[in-house]
Automatic annotation (TrEMBL):
It comes from Hyphomonas oceanitis SCH89. This is EBNA-1 nuclear protein. Residues 1-23 are annotated as: Disordered. InterPro entries: DgcN-like, DgcN-like_C, DgcN-like_N, P-loop_NTPase. Signal peptide: none annotated. Residues 80-148 form the D-glutamate N-acetyltransferase-like N-terminal domain.
């Protein structure tokens, strides 16, 4: 495991506050969102997450070509972004494996040379880009590797903690777990309830300024990291924990299981895309039915919380009209017996009703 002394943040504009699970990032903002040469919408979930949940921090987007998928922000070069007040180039791509492609290298170096700090959530550290560290040092800007920013972790204990916890789980990746957790946490705060969003992925950490990049933790320590993420709290406080992956994923199920056991959720909310038939990027691996996913998550979660239950099913229905959405909800609720909602379109009131 990486030692605490290994630097993952270079340059003066970046600061840290606190330590352990309370350690916070203070990132140089606002951002120019880097979309690279990406054409897959699902690979741009970091960019979309920042655009949707922190729009005031997003100056524009940088695309390597006109063929790169747009997220609807103004296209800007590095000079124009700096003139508009941007402090960082934030990599908005979250691709499988998290490698930094060689095709990006000259663009990242040009951004640092222009004076933009670079924020990355990729698995590859920014120091792997030739000359980038030297260019950043000369320009006086930061290189920030979100996925490599974490304290040491202990193994999980399984010991129950005070306070209450809700974990979003899914039938696939990139299916709304972060958006659902953010929406629930926001609604609880607006209702005067005690709630904290707990980030477990790079985008969530960028938004919250704290968290644990759970898919970068050595497998033996994933449950322990999840325990430290949501420590003891007062009895009426809710930690709303961002889920990762799915128990049905041929590559990432181990992350999902460790997070499930360490989170010890009192409630789970299942996130599902009714349009998907196969696990994204893995042909031949079928997306489970919502009931299959709920049953397996509850069965495995009972190892560390025997009282866990499901609070509902979160669906992305942005492509449906109102009547089609209501029909889908009615059908699933009648068949499965769980409340259905769209956290963005209809809100999360059905979940809040079960938090008493």
């Amino acid at each position: 495991m990486r030692s605490e002394s290994e630097s993952v943040i270079d340059g003066p504009p970046m600061t840290q506050q606190g330590d352990g699970s309370d350690r916070r990032l203070v990132l140089p903002e606002p951002y120019l969102l880097f979309l690279g040469d990406t054409c897959l919408v699902t690979d741009l979930k970091t960019a979309f997450g920042l655009r949707d949940w922190a729009p005031e921090k997003c100056i524009g987007q940088y695309r390597m070509s006109e063929h790169t998928t747009s997220i609807g922000l103004a296209d800007m070069g590095f000079g124009a972004a700096l003139a508009a007040g941007a402090k960082s180039l934030l990599i908005g791509v979250a691709s499988a494996g998290g490698a930094i492609p060689k095709s990006w290298w000259p663009h990242l170096c040009s951004a640092a040379h222009a004076g933009l700090s670079i924020i990355s959530g990729m698995h590859d550290p920014l120091r792997c880009v030739p000359n980038l560290s030297e260019i950043a040092a000369e320009s006086g800007c930061s290189l920030v590797d979100i996925r490599h920013w974490q304290p040491e972790h202990s193994v999980g204990t399984g010991i129950r903690r005070q306070g209450r916890r809700l974990l979003t789980v899914g039938t696939d990746c990139a299916i709304g777990k972060k958006y659902t957790a953010l929406a629930i946490s926001k609604a609880m705060g607006q209702a005067g309830m005690k709630a904290t969003f707990r980030a477990t992925g790079q985008t969530g950490i960028m938004l919250a300024g704290a968290g644990v990049p759970i898919d970068s933790v050595i497998s033996d320590f994933v449950s322990g990291a999840a325990e430290s993420l949501s420590p003891d709290n007062v009895s009426d406080h809710w930690d709303i924990i961002e889920g990762q992956g799915t128990l049905f994923h041929p590559a990432y199920a181990a992350v999902s299981l460790g997070l499930l056991h360490g989170s010890q959720p009192d409630l789970i909310v299942l996130c599902h895309d009714h349009r998907r038939k196969e696990i994204d990027g893995f042909p031949g691996f079928l997306v489970p039915t919502p009931l299959e996913a709920i049953d397996l998550n509850l069965s495995l979660a009972r190892l560390t919380n025997s009282q866990v239950r499901c609070a509902g099913i979160s669906l992305n229905t942005s492509g449906l009209d109102d009547e089609s959405r209501r029909s889908l909800f009615r059908s699933l609720e009648d068949d499965l017996g769980y409340a259905c909602f769209d956290p963005i379109v209809t809100g999360v009131g059905k979940v809040l009703e079960q938090l008493a």
